[in-house]
Amino acid sequence: MFSGFWQKIGCWPNDIRNHWKNNEDWLWFHAVSVGELNAIFPLVQKLKNIKSKYPIIISCTTKAGYEHAKTLTRNSDICVIYFPFDIPLVLKSFFNKIKIKLLIIAETEIWPNILNECKNREIPVILINGRLSDKSFRNYHLFKFYFKNVLNNFSEILTQSQKDTEKYLKLGANTATVETIGNLKFYTDDDYFKENNNLELNGGHGNIIFASTHEGEELLAIETYKELLKIKNNIRLIIAPRHITRVTQIVDLIKREGFDVTLRSENKKTNTSHNIFLLDTIGELKHIFKFCPVTIIGGTFTKVGGHNILEPIKAGSYTIIGPYDFKIKELTSVFIGNNALVQVKNKDELVVEILDALNNNEQVKERINNGVILIKKNENVIEKYLEHILKYL
Prior knowledge:
Blueprint lengths: L4 H4 L5 H8 L4 E5 L3 H17 L5 E5 L2 H10 L6 E4 L5 H10 L2 E7 L5 H9 L4 E6 L3 H9 L1 H8 L4 E4 L2 H9 L7 E3 L25 E8 L3 H13 L5 E7 L5 H10 L3 E4 L11 E4 L6 H4 L5 E4 L12 H5 L3 E4 L7 H9 L4 E2 L3 H13 L2 H16 L3 H10 L3
Parallel strand pairs: 1-2, 1-4, 2-3, 4-5, 5-6, 6-7, 8-9, 8-12, 9-11, 10-11, 12-13, 13-14
Helix pairs in contact: 10-15
């Protein structure tokens, strides 16, 4: 909450205010954090290429999202800010300083005051890649009498799935404004996996990565690794925690379990199976998947509900999830149904699946290929979103 506090209450640096003053008809994209930003950034780039006359501003809520946005836009003139608090006085000050042409919000961000302010100023607002978890839907539904009017301040609500569309309609959204388009995370550009940032992850080892882990899952990763090393000694474990603020805690855990640690930020090679590689940087995870024959998705072995499965599948990494996938069920059910994703119940099943994957038999190759094909079939989703946005420009 306190990251970017001054910007969030409307105290903008002079260079940002001058940037706003010298340009008009801004296209404003909002993505709460890193995952949402990664999903929409290819769309931002395409729109910038097509409609270069419109300046672009990207806002994020979290520090990780803001810093990642700064990194992604470091060689461009895109303006990056923290998303202002949804307080009328703050918002009026913001809109008085910048002329917004169109606001495009990613996924689940529903802010009543900003939507109302945009309506009063006749600024169209599009929700893209829209989704609602079952929990969010239940909470919103308790106050349907209120959120019905809020949702109808969106010019369009463009959703990831038919199930999401149905949820928005049940909350009272206007049928004419809601449409199922698809998941933007299906799209990755041709250069998406080319960068490797000097990652030293080759060397003849079978890399397995536990990606976007939460507390409790790092211990599962280490215990699984110990079981695997009893059978295969040329395996290397990579752990990528969801929140790098937990790195110190994870390093202590790894050492207590009898392993050495190599931090990505140290830029050192990890050459032995006794050394666990810990990704302690932001924005590099997507580049690591191509080095890993096997990916285990974090947030699915604790009651978090799961994270992005598309990046590792696209990279050709054999992808495994645990029993808790309720946040990503729409995606996982499609991939499991197309024999492109594996779900396990516990550590014992996980060990077996990883060993099968490392043996790279025909069934493994088939699942990997099925996943890549399924993603390619859905990659035109970005063009569909562009078509809707361009109507307002």
